[in-house]
Amino acid sequence: MRICGIKLTHDGAVALIEDGKLIFCIEQEKRNNNPRYQSIDNLDTIVEALNEQGLSIWDVDQFVIDGWDGEFESEFQVFSEGVPRTLSGAPYVERWPDNPLKSHDRSGLALSGSILPYKSFPHVISHVVSAYCTSPFAKAGEPSFCLVWDGCIFPRLYYAGPKGIRLIKCLFPMIGHAYAVAGHHFGPYRKADPKSWDLGVAGKLMAYIALGAAQENIVNVFRELYEEHFAGETLLAIGYRENIHNADALLARVNDYFDASASRLQCEKPEDVLASFHVFLERLLVGEMTIALQMQSQFGSRNLCVAGGCGLNIKWNSALRASGLFDSVWVPPFPNDSGSAIGAACCALAVDHGLAPLDWSVYSGPRLKTSEIPRGWGAAPCTLAELARILASNEPVVFLAGRAELGPRALGGRSILAAATSPQMKDHLNEVKFREHFRPVAPICLEDRAQEIFSPGTPDPYMLFDHKTRPEWRERIPAVVHLDGTARLQTISRNSEHDVSKLLVEYESLTGIPLLCNTSANYHGRGFFPDAAAACEWGQIGHVWCDGLLFTKTSETNVSPVGCADFSVSA
């Protein structure tokens, strides 16, 4: 049974599940240096994604489209073979509390000259299912709470298990985009007319707030205005809560909230204001979660899955994990909409088989493309031991290995790696990536040594929790220590078959240090490099390693073009 899941809107993607195993998930931003958050406007993209895997539309038993904006159904304007088409789908949030997995069954999916039937499930339910089915809880047959906090919705708490899904409650009336909107009212991303949101701002604010400190008087201002605008029994708050299916109205009210906050906080530093707002939301989240669990004592499980765009906030994830409310907290590597195509396919699977565990790997993205390398670059075989020596000499390397990782974090498949021993390395990487000076660079570390260097240092393979750098290591690895002493750690087993693990073992043997700087290999504002040629054309890093072949900038202009996929080199 092959099920093809499709996410058409931002963070567009095509995923294929066969007999409960994820075969691939191709995010649109990771094709051809596409812009971040790229949507799928042309259905021919689905055909191309299947063809690249040696499949046709006739090899797929069922197509599923993730739902989107709409109270009762969503609508998509797309093209197929140059012809405009309109598709309808499920709404953003489920409309049948007793049957959240009820599908919208439709026809009209135009692929390769044929009109095919398809199913659609609510967007939020795709988040629940993608998080739970990829979790260790599903693998163990255990149920779990599931928190979904997306851009245009209030945080919703579900209970998911092999037998199905149940909505517990909405935790509090604050949309997920509030974090980014705060950044459009205060600080370096402030807009004169903040009527829309930038999907990239929220992640930048997590770094920026380390420049400030939370102040209780500022937190109190946000708390008072929260009651007045959102949670209380004022006419303003009641009207806001009655408009939960109108994204524009919700956003307007959130802007009003920050306008009112700004008028009372004119004398405060913007970094302190944003740090205080972060703390206010973190306390609100943990506090309301505590109340919700006290009222749900009939549920024996104390597992938690986190999904939705807010699942990328590593500090909130860490606060939930440190709260003591849960025995275990799981965040998939794609909590945002990059996992929605997988979730849509898993929904269709769950209708017939229940919420069963998915057999999957994080390295299920696009394969490296064969490409010609620009002139001015030389190519030679390079073992991982040789590459470790280059890194030890304080030279950064673009590292491209195997299939791309899923989700927005570079996890060693499409990474820029560098030694973490020089404080200048963070500045250099931020400069070549066109990033602000306060942005951190993450460490990738061998799992069995992580606790020696970080607290808690527990396994974190997807870079989704906050870890404190232990004092004795801060001067040894300054390039990966953030302004507040934390690190967005990624761990990997030294027994992993992935080349980045083998490289870390070689680097550790050479230097005694089991970690490297790790940041994404991409053009500014674009998805990961699809091939070595793109990394060479970018040209900001002088070494590009691609599946056993090292490309190095030369002074020559007549270098023969060569594609890294044309070589088979043992490392």
Automatic annotation (TrEMBL):
Domain Carbamoyltransferase span(s) in chain numbering: 2-346
Pfam families reported in the protein's UniProt record: Carbam_trans_C (PF16861), Carbam_trans_N (PF02543)
InterPro entries linked: Carbam_trans_C (IPR031730), Carbam_trans_C_sf (IPR038152), Carbtransf_dom (IPR003696), NodU/CmcH_Carbamoyltrnsfr (IPR051338), Nodul_NodU (IPR048155)
Domain annotation Carbamoyltransferase C-terminal: ranges: 388-536
Recorded superkingdom: Bacteria
UniProt GO molecular function: catalytic activity
Residue ranges that the Swiss-Prot or TrEMBL entry lists as coiled coil: none
Family statement: Belongs to the NodU/CmcH family.
Protein name (Swiss-Prot/TrEMBL): Nodulation protein NodU
